[in-house]
Amino acid sequence: MAEPLLEVKDLRVHFDTDDGVVQAVDGISYGVSAGQVLGIVGESGSGKSVSSLTVMGLTRSSNARITGEIRFRGRDLLQASNEDMRAIRGGEIAMIFQDPLSSLHPFYKIGDQLVEAHRAHTDVSKAQARDRAIEMLGLVGIPDPRRRVDGYPHEFSGGMRQRVMIAMALINDPKLLIADEPTTALDVTVQAQILELIQRLQRELDTAVVIITHDLGVVAEVTDEIAVMYAGRIVEHAKADTIFASPQHPYTWGLLKSIPRLDTPRDEELVPISGRPPSLILKPPGCSFHPRCPYVREAHKKVDPVLEPTGGADPSHKVACLLPSETRRALWSALQSGETPDEAREEVDIPDTLSGSAGPDAGAQAAAPANEEVSGS
Ligand SMILES: Nc1ncnc2c1ncn2[C@@H]1O[C@H](COP(=O)(O)OP(=O)(O)OP(=O)(O)O)[C@@H](O)[C@H]1O
Ligand code: SF4
Ligand SMILES: [Mg+2]
Q1: Domain count, the chain
Q2: Is residue 14 situated within a structural domain?
Q3: Whether 110 and 214 share a structural domain
Q4: Half-sphere exposure of 338 (CA within 13 A, CB side)
């Protein structure tokens, strides 16, 4: 595979607050190459936005402690000056923000905002920038762009405004586009159109794209790889096809079982994941997902699993779960045949042994080392 354009290594973003340290991002690593689309999926508060805003240099503040590496075209962005980051933002790396309505200024014409975005990074005349703005509006499917370029944001529908945001993000030919929930506020048909648009532009322009969403269903069609985030960590990462065909993490199963899909029987019940995401100040000991996991064993409450290769057919497939892989496969197969988590747990023998590796702090917490019998559960 090509050298990744963006390579994030062991990124941690912790915020000091009056209530304690918020471990918003807690050691994530991923890469994305030119022309590739990575989906980052997880529930609200899992650290998706913070991790991406950090790539853009937008979480730098006196209460933030940021460690790890963010290599973009070989350079560590965490070491770049604020001035350099300003030049990179909107230029080589562009972002579609989670709240597009607040990103367009209501008092200025769409065209003027696009012209300003272009001229901030490129040495062109106003007339050239306006031509480029019209070209971009056409590219993202705004009808009659020569006229609409002089419209104000309120004259555009939600879906059209989102297209304008995409035009704005792409106007400087970014190498990397980060789209944070680019379709959340839109209805389902428009959602699909916007995703198709991002995918088409990404193919035509060979841009690397990171799409952030809480909805695994949304990114099924457009992503090459998917990273599932839970409580500031990546708990599963694989090719998109693998995530849907043979997911290995109980949280991913929960996400998959809670979305309607075209290829599942109509009468199959959607099962929401019970419980709530944990506090990022006081994370549960051991596996962070254990309070909500239907398959938890006693030892999982003490040992923190690390993300490691599953050894399956997809070499990029990694999972952070302490169950043996054959147990995970048996559970998923039971769930796929329509069983509830309770039924699957009854049917499959879930051993009390630890299979995955323990994380760095496991030594202090662990009642038993990995791969050993754990008594009493
Ligand atoms: N500047 C900050 N100071 C303290 N805590 C913060 C700060 N920014 C974010 N957080 C916390 O970090 C955690 C992760 O937030 P983040 O916005 O990344 O979640 P998310 O996965 O994008 O969720 P959503 O799906 O709701 O957008 C949250 O608990 C949030 O409150
Ligand atoms: S380690 Fe245990 S608690 Fe954590 S996801 Fe795997 S089975 Fe569930
Ligand atoms: Mg977010």
Answers
A1: 2
A2: yes
A3: yes
A4: 6
Q: What is the mean pLDDT of residues 149-169?
A: 90
Give the mutation target among 287, 345, 352 for probing the ligand 2 site: most ligand atoms within 8 A of CB. Answer: 287
Summarize pLDDT for 69-83 with one digit per residue, the tens. 999 999 999 999 999
pTM over 0.85: yes
**Domain shared by 73 and 178, yes or no:** yes
Asked which of 177-191, 206-220, 325-339 is least confident by mean pLDDT, the reply is 177-191
The answer as to whether 273 is a domain residue is yes
Query: Near ion ligand 3, which residues have CB within 5 Å?
Result: 49
Indicate if 58 and 76 belong to the same structural domain: yes
How far apart, in Å, do the first and last CA atoms of the chain sit?
Answer: 44
pLDDT, tens digit, for every residue of 88-142? Answer: 998 999 998 877 566 789 899 999 999 999 999 999 999 999 999 999 999 888 9
Q: CA 155, 158, 160, 163 torsion: positive or negative?
A: positive
Beta bridge partners of 28: 11
**Is residue 216 located within the same domain as residue 242?**
no
Q: Same domain, yes or no, for 324 and 232?
A: yes
Name every residue whose Cβ is closer than 8 Å to that of residue 197 and which is 6 or more positions away in sequence: 140, 141, 163, 166
The most distant pair of C-alpha atoms in the chain lies apart, rounded to whole Å, by 75
Range of the structural domain that residue 79 is part of: 6-223
Pocket lining for ligand 1, CB < 6 angstroms = 15, 17, 22, 24, 42, 44-50, 98, 214, 280
377 within some domain: no
